[in-house]
């Protein structure tokens, strides 16, 4: 399902000659859906900051553990994953549907290639559903209208925003987009959100260089700032912590103690 | 070769990839390793390219030379038998071109097959009657029984792909649906099958409209990209369109990734899957309703 069927207007375009964060991320995660420009950017970053590959994996692992919590302990059966990225291991619907096959998931991304991969590669359980909405996450009206075709927005929904708000450079824009989505979800819904932080000055310098390369920039924010995304919500234990400290399990590493933070909170 | 081979299996490919990694880990080139064992370099090269079945003595000698640990040695030796077993397609050798025998191992383990055809319904989406009608033109020397056998094999491939939950992602121009293959009944049945298939969760079909501007696959012969979700097995690209019964197969990074990029851009420029299903209906209504 797509909200933008391209009609007789000009077709969508992608430029595979410029690094793209979803594909660079795919490269760091060991995926095969990336092009020379993405690997060059990924290699340049990793060459100067080898931990980045571990950070990418542990960010994904935070997503796995939070979705597991939401499906298993919070009993959530509807997920809205905003800024989904390219399919990789342990995608939101796979984690949720392993626990509850009837789970319904909507992926949102503004990149048509990402969503075509989502559509073609991510098969739902027969009992549940996965769908996608092609929209800029800032366009919350389109996001919600599209999501409502698959999700019942009168019933609790887990809003999943996994490490993508750094692409919204303006703080007020980032905060307001999360608020607009949260406001539309019923009581008993949840917000699961993570955000990268510079682990040290070297990390910050390498990211600045990446941002200057022509790729879509990603900016770091400190946890003291990003905790504001959860204002007015009921934090789930242990609150806002660095990725590996959020309900770690046997597969959780400990490397990213300062690289990224996140939390899960209930919408009252 | 002691026995007739039916092409490499995925298990075979994984094992030779592990042997190659062990050699590289030991810091040895193919000629260096071969010389130390008193082999001709081509013996080892063919083994690593899965062109020969895996001989217990040879593999054991390689593991010794590479200094593999006991656990790894036991694991690899334990998998030799299974890797040397023929694939399910072994009895269909008569219906297959040599390149296809090798490709079947990849197809039998593929998580995703992406395919493009410039002028016809892509092979893996064809009905038997449509496939036989195409064969009749492409291979006039074959008799009816031969064509039937090839169509039966195609049906078996389609069934197995569905059973192993391989995702199929096809992109083609809408004009490819208008090429009259066989009689009206053949076309109507093919359309019906396409519409049903497009509704399946494991199949994605995208059409390029008639008014489409050129995209990267414009004028490119039929091609398919096979993805196995195992790091050790590279994506494979098959391009048909030369002499009948021939194909070029690549598994090296440059051509594979170039074709993947062309497929990606072509799919982004094509009609979205949901809208494509409406266009399929319109096309059916236009001529065959």
Shape label of chain B: elongated
Structural class, from helix and strand content of chain A?
Answer: alpha/beta
Oligomer: heterodimer
- Main interface by residue count: A-B, 27 and 32 residues
Rg of chain A (C-alpha, Å): 17 Å
**Low-confidence runs of chain A:** 1-8
**Segments of chain B where pLDDT lies below 50 for 5+ residues?**
none
Number of helices of chain A: 9
Mean pLDDT of chain A: 90
Envelope shape of chain A: globular
* Beta strand count of chain A: 8
Could you characterize what this model shows?
The complex is a heterodimer of chains A (268) and B (289). Chain A is α/β, with parallel strands linked by helices and 268 residues long. Helix content of chain A is 36%, strand content 15%. Chain A is built from nine helices and eight strands. Chain A has helices at residues 21-28, 36-48, 52-72, 92-99, 112-121, 140-147, 171-183, 201-211, 223-226, and strands spanning 78-82, 104-109, 129-134, 158-162, 190-196, 234-235, 241-242, 260-266. In chain A, strands 1, 2, 3, 4, 5, 6, 7 and 8 form an eight-stranded mixed beta sheet that branches. In chain A, helix 1 crosses helix 2 (36-48) and helix 3 (52-72) runs parallel beside helix 4. The longest helix of chain A has 21 residues, at 52-72. The model of chain A is unreliable at 1-8 (pLDDT under 50). The mean pLDDT of chain B is 90. Chain A binds chain B through residues 1-2, 4-8, 10-14, 16, 30, 32-33, 35-36, 112-113, 116, 119-121, 123-124, 134, and chain B through 112, 114, 165, 167, 169, 201-202, 204, 206, 209, 211-213, 215, 227, 231, 235, 257, 260-261, 264-265, 267-275, 278.
């Amino acid at each position: 399902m797509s909200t933008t069927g391209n009609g007789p207007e000009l077709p969508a375009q992608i430029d595979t000659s410029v690094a793209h964060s979803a594909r660079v991320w795919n490269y760091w995660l060991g995926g095969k859906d990336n092009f020379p420009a993405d690997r060059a950017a990924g290699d340049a970053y990793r060459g100067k900051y080898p931990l980045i590959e571990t950070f990418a994996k542990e960010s994904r692992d935070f997503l796995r553990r939070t979705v597991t919590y939401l499906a298993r302990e919070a009993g959530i059966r509807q997920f809205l994953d905003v800024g989904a990225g390219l399919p990789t291991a342990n995608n939101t619907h796979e984690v949720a549907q392993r626990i509850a096959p009837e789970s319904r998931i909507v992926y949102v991304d503004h990149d048509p290639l990402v969503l075509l991969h989502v559509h073609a590669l991510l098969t739902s359980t027969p009992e549940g559903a996965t769908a996608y909405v092609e929209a800029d996450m800032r366009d919350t009206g389109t996001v919600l209208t599209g999501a409502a075709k698959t999700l019942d927005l009168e019933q609790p929904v887990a809003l999943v925003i996994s490490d993508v708000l750094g692409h919204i450079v303006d703080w007020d824009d980032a905060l307001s987009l999360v608020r607009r989505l949260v406001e539309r979800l019923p009581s008993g819904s949840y917000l699961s959100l993570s955000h990268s932080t510079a682990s040290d000055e070297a990390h910050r310098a390498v990211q600045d260089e990446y941002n200057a390369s022509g790729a879509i920039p990603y900016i770091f924010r400190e946890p003291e700032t990003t905790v504001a995304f959860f204002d007015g919500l009921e934090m789930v234990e242990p609150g806002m912590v660095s990725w590996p400290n959020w309900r770690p399990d046997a597969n959780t590493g400990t490397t990213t103690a300062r690289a990224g933070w996140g939390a899960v909170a209930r919408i009252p | 070769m002691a026995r007739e081979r039916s092409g490499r299996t995925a298990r075979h490919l994984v094992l030779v990839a592990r042997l190659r990694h062990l050699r590289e880990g030991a810091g040895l080139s193919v000629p260096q390793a071969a010389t130390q064992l008193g082999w001709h370099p081509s013996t080892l090269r063919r083994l690593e390219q899965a062109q020969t079945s895996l001989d217990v003595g040879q593999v054991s000698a390689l593991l010794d030379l590479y200094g593999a640990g006991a656990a790894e040695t036991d694991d690899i030796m334990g998998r030799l038998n299974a890797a040397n077993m023929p694939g399910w397609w072994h009895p269909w050798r008569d219906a297959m071109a040599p390149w296809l025998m090798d490709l079947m191992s990849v197809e039998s383990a593929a998580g995703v097959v992406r395919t493009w055809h410039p002028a016809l319904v892509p092979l893996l989406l064809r009905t038997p009657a449509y496939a036989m009608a195409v064969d009749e033109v492409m291979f006039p020397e074959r008799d009816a029984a031969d064509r039937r056998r090839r169509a039966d094999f195609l049906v078996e491939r389609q069934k197995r792909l569905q059973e192993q939950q391989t995702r199929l992602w096809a992109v083609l121009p809408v004009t490819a649906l208008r090429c009259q293959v066989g009689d009206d009944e053949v076309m109507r049945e093919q359309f019906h099958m396409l519409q049903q298939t497009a509704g399946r969760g494991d199949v994605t079909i995208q059409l390029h409209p008639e008014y489409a501007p050129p995209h990267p696959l414009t004028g490119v012969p039929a091609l398919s990209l096979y993805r196995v979700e195992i790091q050790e097995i590279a994506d494979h690209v098959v391009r048909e369109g030369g002499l009948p019964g021939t194909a070029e197969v690549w598994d090296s990074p440059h051509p594979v990734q170039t074709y993947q990029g062309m497929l990606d851009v072509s799919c982004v420029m094509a009609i979205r899957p949901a809208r494509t299903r409406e266009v399929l209906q319109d096309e059916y209504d236009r001529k065959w309703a």
